[in-house]
Amino acid sequence: MDLILENVLEQLYKFDNYKITKNDIKNALNKDILDFKDLRALLSEEALEFLEDIAQKAQKLTRKYFGNGIYLFTPLYLSNYCNSKCVYCGFQSGNNIVRAKLDEKEIKNQMEQISKSSLEEILLLTGEGREYASAEYIAKACDIARDYFKVVGVEVYSMDVNEYELLHKSGCDYVTMFQETYNKQKYSKIHLAGEKRNYEYRFNAQERALKAGMRGVAFGSLLGIDDFRKDAYATALHAYFIQKKYPHAEISLSVPRLRPIINNKKINPKDVNETRLLQIMCVYRLFLPFANITISSRESVKFRNNVIKICANKMSAGVNVGVANKGDEQFIIDDNRSVGEILKMLKEQNLQAIMSDSIYAG
């Protein structure tokens, strides 16, 4: 077994064997550098009593390392065809939705329109499966994106190193990969068919991307699928071990919660209310102070507006989670604001929109 995976699973296995005390939480709050015990303590239910202190410390670190800057980006879904059956996802194979895939002309047209908003970072997404969206197809999309954007990322199926190399040579900067849940048993129960069933292959995607030359990688669990505290703990450890092995890499963390999908409006994050979500985000900031923390358009306008003042330093704007106007959505979002509305909000809160801080070397 891969050493990083072994370390994460070992810590996850021990999670329930530790009893958290108020002294553990207070000690963690008095530290500048947190260890694994501190991470467990601050993610605990008991730590909610100290949430104000946690948030204040997280806010200070966010302002220290990121100032008042908030990075903006938008997703572009290239295809919603999928060969995997993941019970929580609107794109899952067998779900009765309108399927679509953009051709090169449509990709270019979409990027032209998005670039007019002044955004300089784009995230390209597809469903699972090479037969629907090959590595060559995604690479071509990255190449087109380079004409319009300074930062290009992908959130697609897990790839081999040579495929990530192709994307990188075509202009891709970073790779986002969500493990969904780190509980191997639960993972197998909710991924019923398709390539995504391979837990270990998906887990190691970020490392393969970095070996291929990517500048950065992003991590996340789909909070609400399983015990959200364990998944938050494992996500933070996964990112920590990767950063330790690849210190040059830019690390990002996302906190997506379950959202309703077409044909299943009952899907919602089990036990993960906004207070607990804020706790997770603040603890991520304390444990990995230099990491980007992204807040999704899955969340409410009010919550997003608040967390960017405390711990998040990156957010999406002008989001469409369908395939242009051709294909149905992956999930239902809560914040539908345009780029202009997001920019206005940031200005009102004395925050600075950052479209890009990168220079592409080719």
Task: Describe what this molecule looks like in 3D.
The protein is built from 14 helices and 11 strands. The mean pLDDT is 93. With 362 residues, it is α/β, with parallel strands linked by helices. The strands form 2 sheets. Strands 1-3-4-5-7-8-9-10 form an 8-stranded parallel β-barrel, surrounded by 5 helices. A two-stranded antiparallel ribbon has the order 2-6.
Short descriptors:
362 residues, alpha/beta, two-stranded antiparallel sheet, globular
The chain-level structural class is alpha/beta
Number of strands: 11
The largest sheet, given as strand count, sense and whether it forms a barrel, is: 8 strands, parallel, barrel
Number of helices: 14
Helix content: 25-40%
Widest sheet, order of strands: 1-3-4-5-7-8-9-10
Radius of gyration, whole Å: 19 Å
Question: For the terminal residues, how far apart are their CA atoms?
Answer: 35 Å
Query: Hey, roughly how much beta strand do the residues contain?
Result: 5-15%
**What letter string, H or E per element, gives the SSE order?**
HHHHEEHEHEHEHEHHEHEHEHEHE
Regions with little confidence, pLDDT below 50 for 5+ residues: none
Mean pLDDT across the residues is 93
Q: Note the overall shape.
A: globular
